[in-house]
Write a structure and sequence with these properties.
The chain has 359 residues and is α+β, with helices and mostly antiparallel strands. It folds into 3 domains: 90 residues, Alpha-Beta Complex (Adenine-n6-DNA-methyltransferase TaqI, Chain A, domain 2); 98 residues, Orthogonal Bundle (Helix Hairpins), CATH 1.10.287; 146 residues, Alpha-Beta Complex (Adenine-n6-DNA-methyltransferase TaqI, Chain A, domain 2). The strands form 6 sheets. It has a 4-stranded antiparallel sheet. β8 and β9 form a beta hairpin. α4 runs antiparallel to α10 and α7 crosses α10. The longest helix has 39 residues. The protein starts with 13 loop residues before the first strand and ends in a 10-residue tail after the last helix.
Length: 359
């Protein structure tokens, strides 16, 4: 959707919508982009503006287009690179429309789940903001636990009892070839998620012949993906935690902790925080290479400076941030459960498999 705009000022490339209309994104319909309008405005021509008729309430229509039956038909799209839902197919879809009173009851039930989903999403966002704030404070020394010393002033770079070392002084680069051992998990790094199995993400292993050049990474070790993303404009670093081992592209810089006075989980959050971005930006010599990766050398990357707090403080910081992450993870699982419950309810209520009792 473009935004809230006076419909009278609509341009030729935009569609007008009004309060009570339902919007559905026809471009890549499998993304399931839809909205119930509670205001007037205009939207992209890539969005269908739907209005209800023949005794169908607009909010009931909103739930009909979320149901798997509608999405399946809409996904019978035309085009390959930019697939779009075909109205010819969708307009032929036959859906049961119950009496008005039954529609209202179904809307009431599904709206209850919508409110629970929205509240949980807001709680997750609040927890994520809280975690981000803690990271910015704890990982820079601007916020410290009393047993480790006083918090620094904003003008100070870092606490005086924290060391500052080059990455190569704390970590060793990994160049562990696969040899005859090809692990079950062939991994890539997604900026927002971290390590993902190529089969799960792409439906197949996309490594091809380059697999023989992949690096074997083990649990607790790190890798830097030099690809650009909105979340990490200078690339992202993740620690392998979900797999015992995995093969990763050799274009990633892989590394592991050198000594026992380093707590790896601390650096998991340190790298996640984006605190290295200003230094990375200085060393990136061009926007990207032909393969889309930043042109930062191994020498420059491992020459980047990082802070090294006392070991016990590293553990305490990682424990607090890990606790926050666990809370967020539990909320995300609860959110997925709510979404699955709503999906199941829609399948039964919108098809008439289960009929609601009217007051």
């Amino acid at each position: 959707m473009i935004g809230i705009t006076d419909p009278s000022k609509k341009s030729s490339q935009k569609n007008v919508f009004y309060k009570g209309n339902v919007l559905f994104g026809k471009l890549r319909p499998y993304l399931k982009k839809y909205m119930y309008c509670d205001f007037d405005g205009v939207c992209s021509s890539e969005i269908w503006v739907l209005s209800s008729k023949n005794g169908c309430q607009s909010k009931f229509l909103f739930y009909l287009i979320q149901n798997s039956q509608f999405i399946k038909v809409a996904d019978q799209s035309s085009g390959t690179k930019m697939p779009r839902a075909d109205w010819t197919n969708v307009s032929k879809l036959v859906v049961p429309i119950p009496p008005i009173q039954e529609q209202e009851k179904i809307i009431q039930i599904l709206s209850t789940w919508d409110r629970a989903i929205e509240q949980t999403q807001r709680l997750i966002e609040a927890k994520q903001r809280q975690k981000k704030g803690l990271m910015q404070g704890l990982l820079t020394g601007k916020l410290r636990f009393l047993e480790f010393g006083e918090s620094i002033n904003t003008s100070d770079a870092f606490p005086t009892d924290w060391e500052v070392n080059k990455l190569k002084q704390v970590f060793s680069q990994i160049d562990r070839s696969l040899g005859n051992h090809v692990p079950e998990s062939i991994l890539s790094i997604s900026a927002k998620i971290g390590f993902v199995d190529q089969k799960a993400k792409f439906g197949k292993v996309v490594a091809g012949k380059s697999l023989e050049k992949y690096i074997l990474l083990q649990r607790g070790e790190f890798a830097y993906n030099r690809g650009n993303s909105n979340a990490y404009p200078q690339g992202c670093i993740y620690m392998l935690t979900e797999y015992d081992e995995g093969a990763i592209p050799n274009v990633y810089y892989a590394f592991r902790v050198k000594s026992g006075n380093i707590f790896p989980q601390f650096y998991q959050y340190y790298f996640e925080s984006g605190l290295l971005n200003p230094q990375l930006k200085m060393f990136i010599s061009s926007s990207a290479r032909g393969d889309g990766l930043f042109n930062i050398s191994s020498k420059d990357f491992f020459g980047i400076r990082i802070v090294v707090p006392p070991f016990e403080e590293q553990k305490k910081i990682a424990g607090v941030l890990g606790g926050m992450e666990e809370q967020i993870g539990l909320l995300k699982k609860y959110l997925e459960k709510l979404k699955e419950q709503k999906k199941g309810l829609m399948q039964k209520l919108l098809t008439g498999e289960i009929r609601v009792k009217l007051d």
